Give the backbone structure.
Amino acid sequence: MATLPDKRTDFIEWYLAVVETAELSDKRYPVKGMNIWTPYGFRARRNLDRILIREIEATGSEAVEFPALIPQTEFAKEKEHIQGFDAQVYWVTKGGSTDLDVPLVLRPTSETAMYPVFAVWVRSHRDLPMNLYQIVNTFRYETKTTRPFIRVREIHFFEEHTCQVDEDAATARVRSNLDAFGRMAAAFGLPYVAVRRPEWDKFAGAYYSIALDIPVGAARTLQIGSVHHYRENFSRPYEIRYEAADGGSRYAHQTTFGLSERLLGAVLAVHGDAKGAVFPREVAPYEVVVVPILSATSGDAPMRAATEIVERLTRQGLRVHLDDRDDRPGAKYYYWETRGVPLRLDVGARESSARTASATDRLGTRRTVSLDALETEVEGALTAFDQALLAKARHEFAASFELASTLDQLKESQHVRQLAWCGSEACGHAIEHAIDGSLLGVPEGPPPLDAPLPAECIVCGQRPGVRWALAARPL
Amino acid sequence: MATLPDKRTDFIEWYLAVVETAELSDKRYPVKGMNIWTPYGFRARRNLDRILIREIEATGSEAVEFPALIPQTEFAKEKEHIQGFDAQVYWVTKGGSTDLDVPLVLRPTSETAMYPVFAVWVRSHRDLPMNLYQIVNTFRYETKTTRPFIRVREIHFFEEHTCQVDEDAATARVRSNLDAFGRMAAAFGLPYVAVRRPEWDKFAGAYYSIALDIPVGAARTLQIGSVHHYRENFSRPYEIRYEAADGGSRYAHQTTFGLSERLLGAVLAVHGDAKGAVFPREVAPYEVVVVPILSATSGDAPMRAATEIVERLTRQGLRVHLDDRDDRPGAKYYYWETRGVPLRLDVGARESSARTASATDRLGTRRTVSLDALETEVEGALTAFDQALLAKARHEFAASFELASTLDQLKESQHVRQLAWCGSEACGHAIEHAIDGSLLGVPEGPPPLDAPLPAECIVCGQRPGVRWALAARPL
């Protein structure tokens, strides 16, 4: 039983070891940065998708799927966008032994695949709002070091693209997306901060970008999603126009909402511990594992009880796994701990004759559950586990931020810094230079730390327009 | 309301019109043969996937996902396989502005992506059987005419790949797959025939191939899936070996099972009629549509009743849609008929005051359902609809075959021909030449038509090895 690297001091090494030990992803595929979703990892991904689908469809968005290949001619229409992605797209240049007349891009994101068709679909104000999403894989020729789930070259991706009647309606859609993300994050047990990125760091082609960031490791952050307001930046080059109620012709205002498998990386990064992965129940490949403990004298009563438990909980709609492998109980406990299963139920001779099971959750809380009240007691144990996990995550989240009132504090902090900024690009770059990192931007709503806003910018000391901002080194 | 082309005389034109009228797929994407899954089409696809997942997982198969890009070096390892696909693969040759050292193939199927990794995963007989499946998109540079769902260049694809201890175990897996397909086909209401393809028409690299065929149009057939036994044909070049219980090193025997969005095309082709699409309930985007019928004197009682119906049926787990658009009832009836919804419930003033709804299924059967017994009566109506649809499909299936006892009958038949064949390649090609089509092969189990097997081959008149075979022009 190998010991994992220390999460605090060697975050990335710890993270890589957690993913590998839990067998969530296999990186032995012969293309760098393109990993295999193993059976166990795929179960987690399916749960991730289910949560995303449930919450986005609750807001009236509908699923579609556009092709993976985009003609060069369409890809090149919005200048900033093409510049933003040009260096990191894969090109399909041949079909069989024939050179293609028009080279095709493997989608890095789907604006340029969808919007030529949106121009056909959107005709009248009665077609709006049009809220469509897809869950597909996207491709980026990453030059940075790849990491499972966090930075890969084939990305499991969620993207919503909407068309709205005007800027206000698009702003309202951005709000609705942020609310939906709040509900998704609750299922993942992930505290986060929504931050409006500075001008120089917004998405290629966006009017503005709101990123969803979480603190990870020491003073690092990870962007786990984003919501963008495009105004008319894409609808003009792609000619997405509609006939308004007054008969006039208007360009649609557009928004997008992007998430990815990185959410799974975030779940591992935030909840994982010295023993390995820890999954909140909604994402867990199995919510419950049942381990029958057999001995020379136990007979088959523990196995019969274990089977009954699995059947009853499965009927209840839970994801349950019976570990009936021929192996020592201790080895099984270790195995399921590294894999992050929320609740383990052990049944030996004593338990089966008392019609009970011994329940241990992934945070170490033990209790005895009675088979007579199995369903309610397991439900109670899982709910208590999720609450404890969220409380722990919230505590660590709050402890990740630090106020920086001076440039020296800014430089020396080992946390994500909360600071006062005048909003100017010059001061923004000075902050980034000071920490060798990024100005994440201005929090939407209250900042992580509740403190009185200083009167002056941390860099220039000027007063006008001072606001809270966050700064850190993104992972 | 445009009339559709005649299904019997202009099958393909009829099919294309059904897909377009029902708005299941949009072919206005600017890459030929790569179509868009519309919201309505995507709902059908999701149901298709759900049925496949349910039935394959019931046989102990687990979901994985391998990357979409395959290095040329791995792709080229099995010679027949590469020859079979070489002319129809897309090549990725550039990342950003860099030429890739090793060109990458966009998977046309995943043998060559998976098997180098299977060689690492399979170590011992305890790792076997290994039954893994994935649902992904595959890519083929088709040179034939493309058709929505039936022949496309980006294909929504199901593929199971298994490793077994020996040939018998692999044969048993082939059987298990055929049984699983039987359960899937029942959900789709699709009668079919499993046919062992002749040697010259098997899958590239297979030991043998069993195709799943359905009759469509006049004397045509459509292959809707296949199960292959690979023996050691791939495990040898990819070195998939395991340590047997006796300590020896053996090559795994492999099987695959492939299905695709073509199943959706088959559902449309088989069940569709002069009015448009007809969906069996399990595949239907919506099982029930509710249409409130409002008039100047109706008040809001019909709308309240319609809303109650939608809420109750949704709670019951049904896929229900409320059509509250501001449009004439007749226009709505037509709209949902072309889209193939199994059951429509209309509620006007008379129905709402009587606490009833008027139910019309897609085959035209009408009944009145009482809101007091809504759930059971709707369930009963849907079950009766599915049974009637299957009976109709079975009748048409049986009528699609014809016995051919002479070469003249073989040539003149306007059906799928059932004939006696000696098994030789020469006679097989003579049959294909005679009908300008294909010898589909030998049915697994009883042939479609129950008749005494002739003593002699229809071509050479020889006796040894005579068996039933089927011949037709594949679509």
In short: The first strand of chain A starts at residue 25 and ends at 26.
